[in-house]
Amino acid sequence: MNAAQVVTLAGPARARTGGEMRELGIVGGGAMLVRDGRIAAVGMLAEMEPQTEHPEIVDAGGRIVTPGFVDAHTHLVFAGNRADEFEKRCAGMTYRQIAAEGGGICSTVRRTRAASEAELAASAERYARWFLAGGTTTVEAKSGYGLTVEDELKILRVIRRVGETTPLRCVPTFLGAHEIPEEYAGQADEYVRLVIEEMLPRVAEEKLAEYCDIFCETGVFTLGQARRVLTAAKRHALGLRMHADQFTAFGASDLAAELGAATCDHLEQSGEQSIEALKRAGVQPVLLPASVYAIGSQKYPAARAMIEAGLAVVLATDFNPGSSPTPSMRIVMSLACTQMKMTPAEALTAATINAAHSLGRGHEIGSLEAGKTADFAIHEAEDYRELPYFFGAGGCAVFAAGVRVAES
């Protein structure tokens, strides 16, 4: 009760496109009724009072209430960090130069392989607390720093464990084709065979993932290899996601459209033709402006062109130890507004209801509507536009299934 704005994101039961992304369903001075972890009603307090008897009151104190953020692209589980590489980038080296010297993803792979499941769980649970403190209640979490059968399974088991031991909801994605491991240098096809013939069957057998992803990029996995992996993933009833067009555009986003992927992520280099292909196929673009910022690039995705083309744009952190070490959806929203010229309303939609739909969770989370899970945040703000405006600021009380789980 006593909220300056209850930003409901109520609307059609699908991802929002075009002008719909600016329609937030704000209830000024509103209230929300929660029963048994679900939203019972949203509206004015006077409408709620006859429906309640001896309720527990949460006073929003003139602040705003939004759905919990839904972060649709993270690499939650890894060992160590790459602060040393951050320093090298500050001195002028590029992300790809560092990777060519044995750093980058492969350096994290070496550390993650050496870590136990318990050690990885402890660090991932720490990061889960960071996400929750920033108002994020659901994340998509990828494997990809193991690159052996057992290490990939280890990471996926940790993702499942974090979803059980913390209030953070985790949607698991298998990303065994994240990089060509060092022991397979010059043998990418052999590694792809391992992913298809040994990793995917085990992942499916243990029901450790809902989606399969691949990093399709020059010097990593080719279009042909991506087609093989994703086609095999479909045979195992996994949904498809794809890292595409991050550094070069050579048809990866078009392949995602052809295969009917749920999302196509990064898209810094995508042009008009790719945008149209994604639109025709109904693929949601997941844009990751914090990764552009963190590696010192100026090449942001063409968010405005995507919105104007009718794509249901999603924003996510790309939280990872190398190219985007931030769990903050508010920082991502701010970058989306200042660097990609999205409006604050579009950014909030992309960080909540559109992200939820990209994970197949739009019926359950992402908006404040009767019947949905009561995942929400009370922010230290009087207007939703302050969320990207005060970039890097914190201050929120976070609730998952109606229970307070974090406060900052």
From TrEMBL:
<feature type="binding site">
    <location>
        <position position="145"/>
    </location>
    <ligand>
        <name>N-formimidoyl-L-glutamate</name>
    </ligand>
</feature>
<feature type="binding site">
    <location>
        <position position="323"/>
    </location>
    <ligand>
        <name>4-imidazolone-5-propanoate</name>
    </ligand>
</feature>
<comment type="similarity">
    <text>Belongs to the metallo-dependent hydrolases superfamily. HutI family.</text>
</comment>
<feature type="binding site">
    <location>
        <position position="322"/>
    </location>
    <ligand>
        <name>N-formimidoyl-L-glutamate</name>
    </ligand>
</feature>
<feature type="binding site">
    <location>
        <position position="73"/>
    </location>
    <ligand>
        <name>Fe(3+)</name>
    </ligand>
</feature>
<dbReference type="Pfam" id="PF01979">
    <property type="entry name" value="Amidohydro_1"/>
</dbReference>
<dbReference type="GO" id="GO:0005737">
    <property type="term" value="C:cytoplasm"/>
</dbReference>
<dbReference type="GO" id="GO:0019557">
    <property type="term" value="P:L-histidine catabolic process to glutamate and formate"/>
</dbReference>
<feature type="binding site">
    <location>
        <position position="73"/>
    </location>
    <ligand>
        <name>Zn(2+)</name>
    </ligand>
</feature>
<feature type="binding site">
    <location>
        <position position="246"/>
    </location>
    <ligand>
        <name>4-imidazolone-5-propanoate</name>
    </ligand>
</feature>
<keyword id="KW-0408">Iron</keyword>
<feature type="binding site">
    <location>
        <position position="243"/>
    </location>
    <ligand>
        <name>Fe(3+)</name>
    </ligand>
</feature>
<protein>
    <recommendedName>
        <fullName>Imidazolonepropionase</fullName>
        <ecNumber>3.5.2.7</ecNumber>
    </recommendedName>
</protein>
<dbReference type="InterPro" id="IPR011059">
    <property type="entry name" value="Metal-dep_hydrolase_composite"/>
</dbReference>
<dbReference type="InterPro" id="IPR005920">
    <property type="entry name" value="HutI"/>
</dbReference>
<dbReference type="GO" id="GO:0008270">
    <property type="term" value="F:zinc ion binding"/>
</dbReference>
<feature type="binding site">
    <location>
        <position position="243"/>
    </location>
    <ligand>
        <name>Zn(2+)</name>
    </ligand>
</feature>
<feature type="binding site">
    <location>
        <position position="145"/>
    </location>
    <ligand>
        <name>4-imidazolone-5-propanoate</name>
    </ligand>
</feature>
<dbReference type="InterPro" id="IPR032466">
    <property type="entry name" value="Metal_Hydrolase"/>
</dbReference>
<dbReference type="GO" id="GO:0005506">
    <property type="term" value="F:iron ion binding"/>
</dbReference>
<comment type="pathway">
    <text>Amino-acid degradation; L-histidine degradation into L-glutamate; N-formimidoyl-L-glutamate from L-histidine: step 3/3.</text>
</comment>
<keyword id="KW-0369">Histidine metabolism</keyword>
<feature type="binding site">
    <location>
        <position position="318"/>
    </location>
    <ligand>
        <name>Fe(3+)</name>
    </ligand>
</feature>
<keyword id="KW-0862">Zinc</keyword>
<feature type="binding site">
    <location>
        <position position="75"/>
    </location>
    <ligand>
        <name>Zn(2+)</name>
    </ligand>
</feature>
<dbReference type="InterPro" id="IPR006680">
    <property type="entry name" value="Amidohydro-rel"/>
</dbReference>
<keyword id="KW-0479">Metal-binding</keyword>
<feature type="binding site">
    <location>
        <position position="75"/>
    </location>
    <ligand>
        <name>Fe(3+)</name>
    </ligand>
</feature>
<feature type="binding site">
    <location>
        <position position="318"/>
    </location>
    <ligand>
        <name>Zn(2+)</name>
    </ligand>
</feature>
<dbReference type="GO" id="GO:0050480">
    <property type="term" value="F:imidazolonepropionase activity"/>
</dbReference>
<keyword id="KW-0378">Hydrolase</keyword>
<feature type="binding site">
    <location>
        <position position="178"/>
    </location>
    <ligand>
        <name>4-imidazolone-5-propanoate</name>
    </ligand>
</feature>
<comment type="function">
    <text>Catalyzes the hydrolytic cleavage of the carbon-nitrogen bond in imidazolone-5-propanoate to yield N-formimidoyl-L-glutamate. It is the third step in the universal histidine degradation pathway.</text>
</comment>
<dbReference type="GO" id="GO:0019556">
    <property type="term" value="P:L-histidine catabolic process to glutamate and formamide"/>
</dbReference>
<feature type="domain" description="Amidohydrolase-related">
    <location>
        <begin position="64"/>
        <end position="381"/>
    </location>
</feature>
<keyword id="KW-0963">Cytoplasm</keyword>
<feature type="binding site">
    <location>
        <position position="320"/>
    </location>
    <ligand>
        <name>N-formimidoyl-L-glutamate</name>
    </ligand>
</feature>
<feature type="binding site">
    <location>
        <position position="82"/>
    </location>
    <ligand>
        <name>4-imidazolone-5-propanoate</name>
    </ligand>
</feature>
